[in-house]
Amino acid sequence: MPRIVVKEGSRPPWVGLAAAVWVELSAGNAYNFPLYSSTLKSVLGFSQQQVTLLGIANDIGENVGLLPGIACNIFPPWTVLFMGVVLCFFGYGLLWLVVSQTIETLPFWLLFLALAVATNSNAWFSTAVIVTNMRNFPLSRGTVAGILKGYVGISAAVYTVLYSMVLNQSATRLLLFLALGLPVICLLMMYFIRVCTPASGEDSSVHGHFVFTQTASVLLAIYVSVISITSDLVSLSDAVSYILITIMVVFLISPLAIPIKMTLFPSNSKTTIPPAGSSDNLVREEVDSTQTDPLLTPSSSATNLGNFFENEKENDDVQMLLALAEGAVKKKRRPRRGEDFKLREAFIKADFWLLWFVYFLGIGAGVTVLNNLAQIGTALGVDDTTILLCLFSFCNFAGRLGSGAVSEHFVRSKTIPRTVWIACTQVLMVFTFLLFASALHGTLYTATALLGFCYGIIYSLLVPTSSELFGLKHFGIIYNFMLLGNPIGALLFSNQLAGYVYDAEAAKQGSSTCLGAECFRLTFLILAGVCGLGSILSVILTVRILPVYQMLYSGGSFQMPQASDH
């Protein structure tokens, strides 16, 4: 791995976090599919089945991130971001050319590929900022993950506001904005997303900075949700719309106030020296590839073998070979949970697959409802699903942000594994799907809000949990492998299960559109069982990894695990 230049100073991590907010909003571009899918269907004459397949392409592109996971360990963050810019430009650019009828209709498989390429930019954008900021704030992983993933969650509402107020609900203009606007934003932020000296988690001001950032994101979420619903109910003039958009932009740039404040009012306190074994030293250790490996230090076995040659002339080369041999033996020791794993090393760990299946079952169930929310609303008598989408988006954001903060508090104070909250969430999802299946009057909005909240919790907690169990060194590729549970869940639960049940019930009614609670009742009951299984696996995983968290957070702060010789 090439040597990476580390940006020194206390401000750069916060500048990078403020820039990451904009990149994460760009990384939510896949949420726009419902806004232009109907135009694709009408302009190109697609069937509903073809549109559903394009939805799967949307999910596959967004979540297949093995390549950016590998790239983030080889190249600096700006190159990973630049790759996302290229994919975003060409993918959405081709879709814009087709929808605007600038070029003739392309084969379906090419449009499928273009959409997958366009949304794959999300994986590159998100991987670059998540991996970089997790390394820049190693002592506050849950909080940082909650903040960044929270902005991805609220991006759907931000795009809806732009679509309604600025782009005049034009799918053609939206695709042009995605093809040109998002690459420009990420190019502007590229310089600031860089590896920095890790921020000290022991400084009391750091907690205040995180609280400010979280408060700003909550106010943004409330604001965009309110104006999104308002614009749908009331006709607003262009002047009012632009004023409201300007206020939204102010909320988005508010995290930049932290490094500005640190510049204008520098702290007089001395930098806290990180304790031995603290992950504050993590980035320095990783980037200094010239350090002497302590595993090559000769031990007692080298001395004993040296006595065997006491009658011979001492040979420095022999001594060096003995030291290297002993070092090689130590290097072959498999990493333990909490240490840095390579992907192939993580593959043979039961905890890796338990975490993967927990994520797959929970997210797969959640994305099924998200992908079919419009049809669910229609079947249950709600024609305008805008409020449902806003409700899901806001609660999704709240789950992501809240779970990061809450899990960080309890893991530090009580060494409670983050998977405890995933287990509780899966139990709540069982109740939520039973609520969906009941189809009682007024329960649709409650169930949608609960599901959005649960979806956000699982999505957010995957980030710090993966890094704590399997380390930060190869975190990018391990995390992105976990994300494969999303498109696989969408294919199995959304396309195969929900699609089959819906079409079967619609056929009974003699129509292509199904109406009534029976359209999704069986799907909801099966998904309740799926989440029940997920909760059981979550409990098993929690019991297994409890000693790991007691080791990592025994001092009230994240501590690097001590290497063992055996």
UniProtKB/TrEMBL annotation:
PANTHER family: MAJOR FACILITATOR SUPERFAMILY PROTEIN (PTHR21576:SF97), UNCHARACTERIZED NODULIN-LIKE PROTEIN (PTHR21576)
Protein name: Nodulin-like domain-containing protein
Transmembrane feature ranges: 78-97, 109-131, 143-162, 174-193, 205-227, 239-260, 352-374, 386-407, 419-438, 444-465, 477-502, 522-543
Lineage, broadest ranks: Eukaryota, Viridiplantae, Streptophyta, Embryophyta, Tracheophyta
Entry keywords, A to Z: Membrane, Transmembrane, Transmembrane helix
Subcellular location(s) of the protein: Membrane
Record's bilayer topology term: Multi-pass membrane protein
InterPro entries linked: MFS_trans_sf (IPR036259), NFD4_C (IPR056555), Nodulin-like (IPR010658)
Superkingdom, natural source: Eukaryota
Ranges where the NFD4 C-terminal domain occurs: 349-545
Any one GO CC term of the record: membrane
Main location: membrane
